[in-house]
Specification:
The chain is α/β, with parallel strands linked by helices. The chain has four helices and seven strands. A seven-stranded mixed beta sheet has the order 1-7-6-2-5-4-3, with helices on one face. Strand 3 and strand 4 form a beta hairpin. Helix 1 packs across helix 2. It binds adenosine-5'-triphosphate and magnesium ion.
Length: about 150
């Protein structure tokens, strides 16, 4: 699906459609087989990765204001489970050099919990630890208010 968003309202709508795509199906494996849903947000500076994550968080039930995790690398939010997720983990890997740096943030443990939705900006920086079933979204800056979003 490739869409050009012309304003924030359209980006919200795209986030809503995407939320239905990743809705965690009941009966998702638990225990040994369990794995989080990990979304990779690819795209240049200012292409809308954080804005999209904020819109998605709101849809999934995040109550707090979601600010960019650029400086803290990772932010964690509780969810109410409506979409099958109990926690949203928002990571900005821009300042990281390799995936190993994520391991100190409990990344492995987080990815083995099917109740987690993990969204990673700049996933290419930590390509060595991304799961094979990463769900990619590509963002492109078109003009001041236009962003192409493809998933
Ligand atoms: N149609 C649109 N959809 C989303 N954001 C838009 C749109 N038009 C303009 N914007 C603006 O573009 C900016 C996108 O910034 P955002 O922080 O989301 O980018 P980013 O991809 O996370 O960048 P970074 O790599 O620096 O973290 C915001 O200021 C937002 O208001
Ligand atoms: Mg960002």
């Amino acid at each position: 699906m490739k869409i050009v968003s012309k304003n924030l309202g359209e980006t919200n709508k795209i986030a809503e459609d995407f939320s239905n795509k990743i809705k965690n199906p009941l009966g998702r494996p638990q225990g040994e087989e369990a794995s989080a849903t990990v979304v990779g947000l690819f795209g240049d500076l200012g292409s809308g990765k954080t804005t999209f994550t904020q819109a998605l968080g709101k849809i999934l039930g995040v109550k707090e204001v979601m600010t960019s995790p650029t400086f803290v690398i990772e932010k964690r939010y509780d969810l109410d489970g409506r979409f099958g997720f109990k926690r949203l983990v928002h990571i900005d890997a821009y300042r990281l050099e390799k995936g190993k740096e994520l391991l100190s943030l409990n990344f492995i443990e987080d990815t083995t919990n099917s109740e987690n939705l993990i969204l990673i900006e700049w996933p290419e920086r930590v390509g060595d630890v991304l799961p094979a079933d990463l769900v990619p979204i590509n963002f492109k800056f078109i003009s001041e208010f236009e962003r192409e979003i493809e998933y």
